[in-house]
Design goal:
The protein contains 8 helices and no strands. The chain has helices at residues 3-28, 30-34, 42-81, 85-107, 113-137, 143-162, 168-191, 201-220.
Length: 221
Amino acid sequence: MNSRKWVRLFLTTLAIGGAAGIITSFFVKTASYTKWLNPFDFFDLLGVLIFFMGLGFVFSLVSQTGFFAYLFINQFGLGIFRSFWPTVQVLLIVFVVFDLIYFPYNASDDGSLLLYILIAASILIYGWIIAKIKAKETNQRAFIPALFLMVVMTTIEWVPGLRTSGTEYAWLMIVPLLACNTYQLLILHRINKPDPKKPSEESKVEKNGSTKRKNTSANKA
């Protein structure tokens, strides 16, 4: 990946995080908007939009940091565990899904166990769908690493949101994280493809060699 593609990936993911933050805030922080609609106050309303967009930017940066950490962890795991690395990832996925239910439920005084089961199941099902798409577009070996990113890495990135009081900021964080991780995962193999318009170095060498041979033959003739 060259610097131009990396900058494009960074800016696009940042924009997705900002948009996801604003859209999510419409649903979970509706009062923050209605407060300035009657009477209508443009500048305060704009300030609220900028605030939630900034939150989305922050969560996008968290997602991008986690994504590049995932790339390192995946290569490190392959080097250490080799053929057992997929099994290790599956065990970690199971452990994290269990933690998503057990620890928040124990920390909550009036939380419903069914609610935490639904949250964990939703993240697992969503990650499963994205991992299937990734595997279909690349190869079947990409399924488990993709599911590991969407479940384990997203949950680790979401830990600060889980520690906040109330659920508003937890939702404000998880939606941009999922959106950004999904985009980065599904776009990575596309931007890593060589540009068909640009000849590779080997083809350039072969072309120059054939040109020289042609010139030599023409001089001899």
